[in-house]
Amino acid sequence: MTRVVQVPASFDYQAFDQFAEAFGEPGDERLLFDAHATHWASPYGLVGLLAAGQWLAEHQKQKPLFTIPQNRDVAHYWARTGFFRHAAELFELHGKVPHVASTGASDVLLEVTPVRGASDVHDVVDKIQDRAAAILRELGLEAQATMGFAMALSEGCQNIVEHAGTGGWVAVQAYHWRQRLGRRVAVIAVADAGVGFRASLETTYAHRVGERWGDVAALEAAVLHGVSRFRDPGRGQGLAGIRRYVERWNGKLSLRSGTARISSPIAKWDDDGPMDDGLASFPGSQMLLIIPARKGD
Amino acid sequence: MPAIDLRTILEETASNGNGDLVTRSTGKAVRNGIVQALAGYRRDQVAIIDFSSVRLIDLSCADEIIAKLLVEHGRTRCFLLTGVDEGHADALEPVLDRRGLAAAVQDRSGRLRVLGQIPEPVRRVFSILAEKGTAKVEEVAAHLAVPPAAARAVFDELLNRRLATAAPGGNEVVALA
User: Fold this and answer.
1) Helices (DSSP H) in A60-183: which residue ranges?
2) Is residue B39 located within the same domain as residue B103?
């Protein structure tokens, strides 16, 4: 039996809950990810799709199906981000995959990239720095924003390596966020299909929380209190560092795991709440970091 | 004694090193490399760790290299971090804070300061040291408007934390160099 998972027409972090609901809790059925009508996907959407594919690859025998966007420009853009190169390993692709040369696209700061080990983190950080410096200058941010951006990227990717128990994906792009902000933004999206924050922290931290223990408490512990599954007191600083960076540059950090999502800090321009609970469950964790331009361009 | 160049240690110890100090595994390898290099130092020599050629250090690596180095060796040896820029400091300060540590750092213009947790009077005396190179008990007592005994207590704190060295006679502290 095949079940269709509709990929949202505009697939950003806000539409992710709709995607997670459609993904559901797959059993033995084969899934078909239908993106033929999708006209836009943020890096968060793209790495989320790959995380879904990865989870299925690790839990099902049959490759899920995937129909690529009908719109040629959209498919080209996804190809330029490197999405299809990785999707082909996880999905049976249907539709014409555009052949594109190496991106060179100024808005794709980092192609969709797998993160499985420390050497991947090194490669990602090495690739991002020169391009990030140029883009962040464009956004009107000072030179110091670049090093923090690379630090945040590194720590975000290391969360996968250190805690997910499996691999994950990262992508970095800059684009004009017309609908929400009317400004250009630089975006880091990191997703994995691993154990998630609740399972990661359960052994060392759940007993302190008692009955309230769950996805919300786990995200609060990790993001607000710097709790880590390791007993080493130096651990658990990565997310705090990302928060500081985001706050300094008036950005957004959102972390989704299981059935909850935390946003912290909340910038003035951001109308999301600090915590969403009772969301559709989705494997692993998904991180979004947005750094907006200082002024509209 | 020559400074320990972090880039050189990175190249010698981490196969995936490309000039950036990121990830815990890299940090651990670099820390072990530093500890090996320290074997060539006398115990009373200031260990100078040079950041000049480091493009990026993240929090995980800063914790593995510097914070753990200070936890393991900071009671018995003075460390001075040189060539530290604001980006490096952004990673070093919180990891030192988290463990209740402090380190003397020198930026690329030669300016000395302390990163991490120290009581305010100690920070103020360190500022005198950074400016003048040395500080005497009477001078500190006057600066802090405290009795000489209290000034000596601040000296002791600086020396216990290995943020300065004592001049012969015990009446004066000297900035790390």
Assistant:
1) 72-80, 83-90, 118-138, 144-159
2) yes
Retrieve residue A122's tokens.
């090194």
Q: What is the pLDDT of residues B8-44, one digit of tens each?
A: 999 888 766 567 999 999 999 999 999 999 998 888 8
Give pLDDT tens digits for B47-70. 999 999 999 999 999 999 999 999
Distance, in Å, from the CA atom of A281 to the CA atom of B5, rounded to the nearest integer, reads: 48
Give residue B123's domain range.
Answer: 118-177
Do B77 and B18 belong together in one domain?
Answer: yes
Chain B positions in Cβ-Cβ contact with residue A149 (cut-off 8 Å):
none
Query: Which residues on A lie below 8 Å from B25 (Cβ)?
Result: 118
Which of these CATH numbers, 3.30.365.10, 3.30.565.10, 1.10.1130.10, 3.40.640.10, describes A2-292? 3.30.565.10
Q: Each residue of A55-78: pLDDT tens digit?
A: 999 998 899 999 999 999 999 999
Same domain, B113 and B162: no
Q: What is the interface pTM, i.e. ipTM, of the complex?
A: 0.89
The reply to whether B58 touches chain A by the CB within 8 Å rule is yes
Please tell me whether residues B74 and B18 are part of one structural domain. Answer: yes
Shortest distance, CA B5 to any CA of chain A (angstroms): 19
Residue A297, pLDDT score:
43
Most confident range (mean pLDDT) of A48-57, A169-178, B168-177 is A48-57
- H-only helix segments in A11-117: 16-23, 43-59, 72-80, 83-90
Cβ distance of A147 and B90 shorter than 8 Å = yes
Q: Which residues have C-beta within 8 Å of that of residue B80, sequence separation ≥ 6?
A: B46, B47, B48, B49, B104, B105, B106, B176, B177
Query: Which residue in B59, B66, B60 sits closest to B9, CA to CA?
Result: B66
Of A123, A125, A151, the CB nearest to B59: A151
The enclosing domain of B131 has a CATH number of 1.10.10.10
- pLDDT band per the 50, 70, 90 thresholds, residue A296: very low
